[in-house]
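> forwarded from #structure-qc
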C-alpha cells in the first residue's frame, strides 16, 4: 500500500485534531463525519493501488486419471477490480483500526498446461485465458502513533488480508482442466492475493512513517518568523477520536526549538455549536501573543508615512490652525509621520470576539533642507476588535476600531491642544494605521494541514481563551488523482 493510500485517513488523524486534555497551543477534535470521510478516501485509494496489480506466476502439477501428470502454469495474474461492501474505522487504546469485509475482487490470468505419460509419448499442451472472482475478502490493519522527539512515529501493529471463496471461469480448456484448476490452484491464487495486498499494506506504512518523520518541525512564514509545529506529548486514542497536539507558537526565524510551558489540564470540547463538521481545530490566544511578540522584537511594527491620498496633510500649512506653532517655526515644510508600536500588542480571546490593545507612538517629523527633524510625539492607545476568518488554509483577521485615547508624549514646539489633535489622529487611524494592519492581517498564517487538503465551509467559534475552527476538509483534485506532498501548506 503506497503512502497515498493511507495518507487520506491519517491526514485527519495526524493533523492537529484532538479533544480532551491538551498540552499544546493548537489542538482539536475529529468527528465521526471526519472519520467516515477519511475511511472512504482510504478505501478509494486502496482500491486504486491494487487494481492492475500483477501477482507472481503460479506453477503446479497434478495427476489426472487416464491422462497422466499435468503441469499447469498460471501467468499474468492481474487484479482488475475490487468492490467493497462493508467497512469501518475505529480508534481505541490499541490503535487505529481500519477494516474491510465482504469485499469482492475480479482477476484475469493466462493459463497453459502440458501433459505427458507413457500413454501419450509425444505429449499434449494448450493455453488460454481465465477470469477469477474472489468473494468474502477481508482486509484490515492496526496502526499506533507515538511522539518521537516532536515528530510522529507510525507503527504497524497488525495487518492482513483473508480471501473467502473464489470461482474460476475458463476461456477454452477441457472440463478436467477446470476441475484441476479449482482443486490444485484455489489455495495458490487465494494466497497470492492475500500476500500481495498484505505486502502493499506493510510497504505503505513504512513509506508513510518515513514521510511523517520528514515533516518539518517549523513552518517558515516570512523573513522574520516561523511557526513551531512540533508535536507535543503522545497521541491519545479513545473509542471515538484521536488526540494530538502541537506547540503552535511563533518563533524568530531559525531560532532553535526549545521546550515551552504548556497550558495543561485544559479540556477542549468537541462540540461545534450543533454544526456537523469533520474537524474542530482550536487555537490558544498565546499563539497570537507569540506572533505579536516576535514581530515587535524584530522591529517590524513600525513604518513611515510620506505619501497620502490627500498629500496636503503632509505639509505644515495644513496644520497651521491645529498646531500654529508648528507652522510658525516651519512654514510650508513637508512632513512625514513615523508610526511605531511601542509595546507588543495585547491579544485576548473572549467568549464573543478577539480583542486587541495596541499602543502606537506617532512621531511628527518635519523635512527641512534634507534633514528629518522630529518635533512631537503623540501616544495613541487603540482598542480594536478582530474578526477572525479562514482564507484558504490560513487563519486571517480584520481589525475594527472600538475606541482610542491620546496623550502628548513629548514636544519640541510647545504644548499642543490635544482636543484638536484628537480628530486628526482619528483620521490617521481610520485611513492609514488600521488599513495597514489589516493588509498584514489579511495575509494570515497557515494552519497545520497536510498538503493536498483544504478547509471547506469553516465556521469560527470563540471559547475563552481558544478560537475554534469548525470545518469540513476536502482533498483537492490534483492530489485526489494521486499527487501528494509530505506536509504543510
Amino acid at each position: 500500500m503506497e503512502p497515498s493510500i493511507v495518507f487520506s485517513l491519517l491526514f485527519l488523524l495526524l493533523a492537529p485534531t484532538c479533544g480532551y486534555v491538551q498540552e499544546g497551543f493548537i489542538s482539536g477534535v475529529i468527528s465521526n463525519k471526519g472519520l467516515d470521510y477519511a475511511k472512504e478516501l482510504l478505501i478509494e485509494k486502496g482500491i486504486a493501488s491494487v487494481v492492475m496489480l500483477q501477482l507472481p506466476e503460479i506453477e503446479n502439477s497434478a495427476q489426472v486419471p487416464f491422462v497422466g501428470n499435468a503441469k499447469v502454469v498460471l501467468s499474468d495474474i492481474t487484479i482488475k477490480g475490487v468492490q467493497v461492501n462493508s467497512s469501518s474505522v475505529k480508534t481505541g487504546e490499541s490503535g487505529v483500526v481500519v477494516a474491510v469485509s465482504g469485499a469482492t475482487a475480479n482477476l484475469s490470468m493466462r493459463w497453459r498446461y502440458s501433459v505427458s505419460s507413457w500413454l501419450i509419448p509425444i505429449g499434449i499442451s494448450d493455453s488460454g485465458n481465465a477470469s477469477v472472482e474472489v468473494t468474502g475478502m477481508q482486509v484490515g490493519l492496526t496502526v499506533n502513533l507515538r511522539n518521537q522527539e516532536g515528530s510522529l512515529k507510525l507503527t504497524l501493529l497488525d495487518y492482513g488480508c483473508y480471501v473467502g471463496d473464489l470461482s474460476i471461469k475458463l476461456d477454452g480448456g477441457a472440463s478436467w482442466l477446470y476441475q484441476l484448476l479449482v482443486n490444485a490452484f484455489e489455495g495458490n491464487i487465494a494466497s497470492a492475493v492475500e500476500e500481495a495486498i498484505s505486502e502493499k499494506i506493510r510497504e505503505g506504512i513504512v513509506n508513510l512513517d518515513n514521510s511523517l518523520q520528514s515533516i518539518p518541525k517549523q513552518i517558515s512564514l516570512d523573513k522574520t518568523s516561523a511557526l513551531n509545529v512540533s508535536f507535543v506529548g503522545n497521541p491519545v486514542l479513545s473509542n471515538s477520536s484521536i488526540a494530538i497536539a502541537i506547540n503552535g507558537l511563533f518563533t524568530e526565524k531559525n531560532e532553535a526549538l526549545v521546550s515551552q510551558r504548556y497550558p495543561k489540564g485544559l479540556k477542549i470540547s468537541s462540540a461545534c455549536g450543533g454544526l456537523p463538521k469533520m474537524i474542530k481545530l482550536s487555537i490558544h490566544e498565546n499563539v497570537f501573543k507569540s506572533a505579536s511578540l516576535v514581530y515587535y522584537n524584530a522591529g517590524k511594527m513600525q513604518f513611515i508615512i510620506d505619501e497620502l491620498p490627500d498629500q496636503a496633510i503632509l505639509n505644515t500649512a495644513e496644520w497651521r490652525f491645529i498646531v500654529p506653532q508648528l507652522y510658525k517655526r516651519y512654514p510650508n515644510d513637508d512632513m512625514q509621520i513615523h508610526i511605531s508600536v511601542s509595546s507588543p500588542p495585547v491579544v485576548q480571546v473572549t467568549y464573543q470576539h478577539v480583542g486587541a490593545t495596541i499602543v502606537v507612538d506617532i512621531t511628527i517629523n518635519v523635512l527641512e533642507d534634507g534633514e528629518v527633524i522630529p518635533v512631537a510625539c503623540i501616544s495613541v492607545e487603540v482598542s480594536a476588535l478582530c474578526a477572525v476568518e479562514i482564507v484558504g488554509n490560513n487563519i486571517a483577521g480584520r481589525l475594527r476600531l472600538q475606541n482610542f485615547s491620546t496623550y502628548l508624549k513629548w514636544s519640541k514646539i510647545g504644548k499642543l491642544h490635544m482636543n484638536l489633535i484628537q480628530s486628526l489622529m482619528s483620521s490617521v487611524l481610520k485611513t492609514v494605521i488600521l488599513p495597514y494592519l489589516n493588509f498584514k492581517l489579511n495575509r494570515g498564517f497557515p494552519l497545520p494541514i497536510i498538503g493536498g487538503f483544504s478547509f471547506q465551509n469553516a465556521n469560527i467559534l470563540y471559547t475563552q481563551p481558544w478560537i475554534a475552527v469548525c470545518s469540513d476538509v476536502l482533498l483537492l483534485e490534483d492530489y485526489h488523482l494521486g499527487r501528494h506532498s509530505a506536509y504543510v501548506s
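QC bot note: The chain has two domains: 30-215, 271-446. The helical segments are 3-14, 32-50, 175-213, 285-297, 324-329, 418-443, 477-480.
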